Structures are given as structure tokens and as C-alpha cells.
Amino acid sequence: QTVVTQEPSFSVSPGGTVTLTCGLSSGSVSTSYYPSWYQQTPGQAPRTLIYSTNTRSSGVPDRFSGSILGNKAALTITGAQADDESDYYCVLYMGSGILVFGGGTKLTVL
Amino acid sequence: QVQLQESGPGLVKPSETLSLTCAVSGYSISSGYYWGWIRQPPGKGLEWIGSIYHSGSTYYNPSLKSRVTISVDTSKNQFSLKLSSVTAADTAVYYCARRGSSRLYYFDYWGQGTLVTVSS
């Protein structure tokens, strides 16, 4: 079974820019996988950030952007803020109605 | 505003069936969209369990397919999850969520989640 890969952890300085990626254990991610991104803080339900590769969900600031970089989906946060410190998950559509979550990236802002 | 609320037993015995319901308000399930279940074991990542269309078509995680049933009750505007033969590995926070229609393969509204512990 194909595994969706994410960096386990990442750190960024306040005001800095960070790019988190979402790949496949076998193959390349393209827009046909309709990548989406979610932010989750401890004890809370996930919050939708990006869908269909690069469309921001309602109310999401434009500091968050999605793209395809090389063979992976990417979430870029520009001007990182303290409250961006969260877990970030990507989801890929594998066809036949099947969705797969990545393992998540724990982002630290320090 | 679309709202989802999970409900069900917080404790289930090993080998028994876990049953949860997701009540939807602010939107009629029969109007469309897909409706799904996602879980998160304590301290671990999210896992998609499955989704159902308002018409009743279902899609399941292949790794759970043999034990999962998702159903919809449009008259009550709710959908349900049943997971059979549970073990401690099924202990998790279970979320229900709305998935986009057609080619919108993402979850836009989430419930707050409910913790289900599998223990004797």
C-alpha cells in the first residue's frame, strides 16, 4: 500500500518562511491527487487550510499557500507566527474514493 | 453554518462493535456532499476510515474495510459508523466530517471528535 510521507518535524523562526512537503513512498504527487492540508493543535479538531493543491479554505490567511514542488505537494507558510505552531497533515486522493493522510509534521516556531 | 456532532459510547469491550453517530445541523445530508469518519489514536496521526455519499454509496479504507460499515439516515440527518471486532489498537478520537462533492476531495467541516477507548 502506498504511504504518504511528511517530515516528522520542522522548525521555523518567527517571521520566517517554511515549506512542508507531502510525498509518496512510490511515485510523484501531482494535482491529480488533489492534495489538501490541515492544521491541528492539541485537543482540537483539524482545521482545513488548503484544498485541490492551492485553494485556500475560507478564512485562511494568505500566509498559507499550497503548490506542487518537484514530485511533492507543498505547504508554504510565510511570515510564521507563534500560533502557527501546530501539527500539519496532508491528504491525497488515491482514486476510487480513497483518501490517505500523511503521518503529519510537527511545526515548532522558535 | 454546518455543524457536526459525534455521539456514542466512550468505552467498548474488546471483540465487540464500536458504534458512533454523527448528527449534522445547518445542512441537509440529502442535498449532497460526502460524509466521512476519521480517527486519531492518542499521540498519533490521523487516519481516514471511510466516506458515504448521501445516496448511500460507500468508500472504505482498505486496511479497515472488512470491519467497517458506514450508513446514512437522511430522515434524521445523521450518519453512522460501525467498527466490528475492536481491539486496543482501535482506541482513538473519532471525528466525523463533511467531504466535498464531485472532485473536491477534502474535508471542510469537522466535528469536535469523541474519544473511544477499547478496554475490558
Question: Keywords for this structure?
Answer:
heterodimer, A: 110 residues, mainly beta, seven-stranded mixed sheet, four-stranded antiparallel sheet, 11 strands, 0% helix, 51% strand, B: 120 residues
Which regions of chain B contain 5 or more consecutive residues with pLDDT less than 50? Answer: none
How many β strands of chain B by DSSP? Answer: 11
Instruction: Tell me the Rg of chain A in angstroms.
Output: 13 Å
Order of helices and strands of chain A: EEEEEEEEEEE
Cα(first) to Cα(last) distance of chain B is 39 Å
What is the quaternary state of this protein?
Answer: heterodimer
Fraction of residues in β-strands of chain B: over 45%
* SSE pattern of chain B, N- to C-terminal: EEEEEEEEEEE
Number of helices of chain B: 0
Query: What's the alpha carbon Rg of chain B, rounded to whole Å?
Result: 13 Å
Major β-sheet annotation of chain B: 7 strands, mixed
Mean pLDDT rating of chain B: 96
Question: How many DSSP H or I helices of chain A?
Answer: 0
How would you state the average pLDDT of chain A, rounded? 96
Offer a concise description of the structure:
The complex is a heterodimer of chains A (110) and B (120). Chain A has strands at 4-6, 9-12, 18-24, 36-40, 47-51, 55-56, 64-69, 72-77, 87-95, 98-101, 105-109. Chain A is an all-beta fold and 110 residues long.
Structural notes for this entry:
The complex is a heterodimer of chains A (110) and B (120). In chain A, the strands form 2 sheets. In chain A, strands 2, 4, 5, 6, 9, 10 and 11 form a 7-stranded mixed sheet that branches. Chain A is globular and about 40 Å long. Chain A is built from no helices and 11 strands. Chain A has strands spanning 4-6, 9-12, 18-24, 36-40, 47-51, 55-56, 64-69, 72-77, 87-95, 98-101, 105-109. The mean pLDDT of chain A is 96. Chain A is mainly β and 110 residues long. The mean pLDDT of chain B is 96. Chain B is an all-beta fold and 120 residues long. Chain B contains no helices and 11 strands. In chain B, strands 2, 4, 5, 6, 9, 10 and 11 form a 7-stranded mixed sheet that branches. Chain B has strands spanning 3-7, 11-12, 18-25, 34-40, 47-53, 58-60, 68-73, 78-83, 92-99, 107-110, 114-118. Chains A and B meet through strand 4, strand 5, strand 9 and strand 10 of A and strand 5 and strand 10 of B.
